[in-house]
Amino acid sequence: MHIRATFILVIIACTGQTLAGDDDPSSIAPAFSASELSQPPTDGWLTNGGDLFNRRFSPLTEINHDNVSNLQPVWRTHLKGSGIGPQFSGEAQPIVFGNVMYVITGANDVFALSVDSGEILWTYEAILDPAIDTICCGWTSRGVGLGDGKVFVGQLDGKLVALDQRSGEVVWSVQSERWQDGLTITSAPLYYDGLIITGFAGAEYGVRGLVKAYNSADGSLEWTFYTIPAPGEPGGESWPNTNDAWKNGGATVWQTPAVDAELGLLYFATGNPGPDFNGSVRPGDNLYSSSIVAIEAKTGKYRWHFQQVHHDLWDLDSANPVVLFDIQLDGKKRKALVQVGKNGWAYILDRTNGRPLIGISEQPVMQEPRQATSSTQPVPVGDPVVPQGIDIAPEGFALLNGGKQYTPYWKERVVNRLAGTNWPPSAYDSEKQLLFVCSSDRVYFYSTDGDEYEPIAAGDEYYGGSFGSTPLPVTGVLTAMDMKTNRVVWSQRWPDRCYSGVAVTAGDLLFVGRNDGRFMALDSNTGMKLWEFQTDAGVNAPPSVFEYSGKQHVAVMSAGNLFAGSQRGDSIWLFALAEPDTEKKTRLLREALLGEADIDPRVFATGRSVYIRACAFCHGSNGDGAHNGIALSQSGLRVPAAIKKTISDGRNQMPAFSELLDSEEIDAVARYVLTLQSDLR
Which end of the chain has less Cβ packing within 10 Å, N or C? Predict the structure, then answer.
């Protein structure tokens, strides 16, 4: 058996902790009702998107604009080194129910953690076959599902597994699809009304995309929906009738679907058609690739679709999750949805029928007959989240068609702007009616291999051409969009990719991570940074916000990401506001360490300021370690003179600061470092 669960029995007498293995029925997730899962989360975080609408919105306000500067770590837990290797990415959103947090690593190992202490209660080890080679863009998982006393895991080897919530033992396991055939699971399974619903990745490996629903009790298959219609099915006419290109048509599903329980509809976005860069072998619109699709949640029956990119040649697929929301437009309450594509446009639709709520018009685009290009593309009214054209050619490339979006290509390399969202999910503020989008701006080149259709076996690489980076730097763009107008409210450009999912709260806060390991809180009204904390690895996963024991908390994974090129790690962090007596504790700590009854608070303030500016990047904002710097909080430092000498002269990989800081600054930061000791906090 390639599955193992290990257990650590922990008793925390001082907190009265109840563990996942306890007989207390309140610690076991019930068969959640649709109404429960449709509400914004408060005392837990029950689904990957926070609720069935995928809004990632918390109505909690204890942590807010005025006090977020007092946010501090409660604990940090290392996940036994799982997912630290170079091929792994940490993108999972923690699930929280009761006093237990559930999280999955890029290696598909699942951990149950005590919310009280961060202790690992049980571990499920997936033990994936190292021979798996049909994974695009890094080994990852974006989360687990929860319901009916089980934790649901979608694996890169195509298995769907149900774990006992209390113990981590396998309840059932099904080989849903085979990785050898190109199909893997990267999204978090969705628990809904006794079903476990999952999509599959693999459009780069000659697959036919699909979504499946299983019975949550025993893993029996309930329905299958194929995202590429067969001949004779609705949409089948959008594929050629002269070959079998539809059998390898792609349109895979990267993210967890959304559900409107009242309508009984399930919504998801689809990936690129196959082959990605050769449209000559697949003339037609190629439904339902690069589309938003609605199906019946209980049966998988097709209801409607909206294609965002016809006959996609540019890898402008829809990797970001669909978000549902209700909104007042023209004096009427409308059931809406939005999905922001890799082309940088937000598509706002009526989720009852798939028709645009904000105008979308078919615009003529440049043609390349050899690529069987579509004559038009749907362009929304409003603002894109990133620029759409190229005004200056990158070195070594010539511009075609004035660098406009949807410029086609053949065998000669042509540059286009590949700028918009990818997997990191967006968040919607239900009160402000704003959508917060993390995207990247990059210029890529494209070319195709030729015009011959050759049948392939599922599981074989299936690109039909190539694309790649140009000398222009990749930057990140974080944007707030008004969903009533589809206009930008504020936007900011980062010097590196914006590659972290976001969560927004009613406390006017937007939580987002950075590739350099920082975790930040921004003013959701303006984008102004209000707080940041330096973790030990790239923060490329969306955070979860919840209330526990009457106190608001924020949890996030810092594990890095292959695609973002960020530092790998294996940490889960939990944050909450500092206790009211923190200032008093700090004063007493300074006195105990330094033997001084009264220390000038200006010295302490200077030390902290210098530390954050010069030391936190390597050692972490709270001294817990980051970017190869040692964890000062665990160092047992007690001698100010020795610390001052190290700061002044340097040691091992640490540079000397004697030329950068004056003696007063060195003295002040040495004193501050003493206060970081974890055993004295």
Answer: N
| CA–CA distance, 197 with 221 (Å, rounded to integer) | 10
Q: Which residues contact 104 (CB under 8 A, 6 or more apart)?
A: 92, 110, 111, 141, 143, 144, 153
Amino acid identity at 101: M
How confident is the model at residue 54, as a pLDDT? 98
Question: Could you tell me whether strands 159-164 and 150-154 are parallel, antiparallel, or unpaired per DSSP bridges?
Answer: antiparallel
Helix, strand and coil content of the chain, in percent to the nearest 5, comes to 15, 35, 55
Q: How confident is the model at residue 452 (pLDDT cuts 50, 70, 90)?
A: confident
Residue of 315, 508, 536, 667 with catalytic role: 315
Do residues 362 and 377 touch, judged by C-beta distance below 8 A?
yes
**Which of 55-64, 327-336, 464-473 has the largest mean confidence?**
55-64
DSSP type of residue 348: E
Q: Residue 14's pLDDT is what?
A: 30
Q: Is 218 a catalytic residue?
A: no
Could you tell me the CA-to-CA distances from 438 to 226, 500, 507, 523, 602 in Å, in that order? Answer: 29, 7, 20, 15, 39
pLDDT greater than 70 at residue 4 = no
Query: What are residue 487's DSSP bridge partners?
Result: 482
Contact of 121 with 19, CB cutoff 8 Å:
yes
C-alpha 79 chain-centroid distance: 18
User: DSSP letter at 614?
Assistant: H
Q: Which two tokens stand for residue 253?
A: 């599903």
The pTM of this model reads 0.86
Measured in degrees and rounded to the nearest 5, phi and psi for residue 128 equal -70, 150
423 pLDDT above the threshold of 60:
yes
Structural domains in the chain plus CATH codes = 4-58+88-577 (2.140.10.10), 582-680 (1.10.760.10)
Q: Which helix (H) or strand (E) holds 592?
A: helix 582-594
- What digits encode the pLDDT tens for the residues 248-275? 999 999 999 999 999 999 999 999 999 9
Cα angle 284, 254, 390; round to 5: 65
What are the strands of the beta sheet with 544-548, ordered from one edge?
71-78, 571-577, 551-558, 544-548
